[in-house]
Amino acid sequence: MRPPPPDLSDPAQFKAYRRELRGVARKTRMFGILLTLAGAGLAYYTKTHDSKGMRLATILVIAAGFGVLGFGMMRRSFHHHLRMARPAE
User: Fold this and answer.
1) Domain boundaries, the chain
2) Does residue 1 carry a pLDDT above 90?
3) CA of 28: how far to CAs of 12, 13, 40, 57, 80, in Å?
4) What distance in Å separates the CA atoms of residue 47 and residue 24, rounded to the nearest whole number?
5) CA 27 to CA 58: how far, in whole Å?
6) What is the mean pLDDT of residues 80-86?
7) Are 20 and 43 in contact (CB under 8 A)?
8) Is 42 within 8 Å of 57 (Cβ atoms)?
9) In the 3-class helix/strand/coil scheme, how is the chain assigned residue by residue?
10) So what's the pLDDT on residue 51?
11) The pTM is what?
């Protein structure tokens, strides 16, 4: 059974809900950012060392990072929609 939706007009409940949302899929989102930054570092390495074979790997790492980040954002959005839905009567 889900808890009732928070009253976002109350500042205390708003702060608590905001803190709750920050924790949803936090590790997933941070991993996506980390992968994207690793891809950027790989792109810099590929550019400075003229390593043409690493270009595809660079694109794949950056794309995977954005994919994981997007997945984390979708999980957070789903949590918000489920939390705000009124309980069935």
Assistant:
1) 25-84
2) no
3) 27, 25, 19, 21, 16
4) 36
5) 22
6) 89
7) no
8) yes
9) CCCCCCCCCCHHHHHHHHHHHHHCCHHHHHHHHHHHHHHHHHHHHHHHCCCHHHHHHHHHHHHHHHHHHHHHHHHHHHHHHHHHCCCCC
10) 80
11) 0.85
Mean pLDDT rounded to a whole number for the chain: 92
* Residue listed under structure tokens 């794309």: 63
Structure tokens at 79: 């949590």
The answer on pLDDT for 7 being more than 80 is yes
**Distance (Å) of CA 7 to CA 2, 52, 60, 84:** 15, 55, 43, 10
| Cα torsion angle, 23, 78, 60, 41, sign | negative
Structure tokens at 69: 């980040």
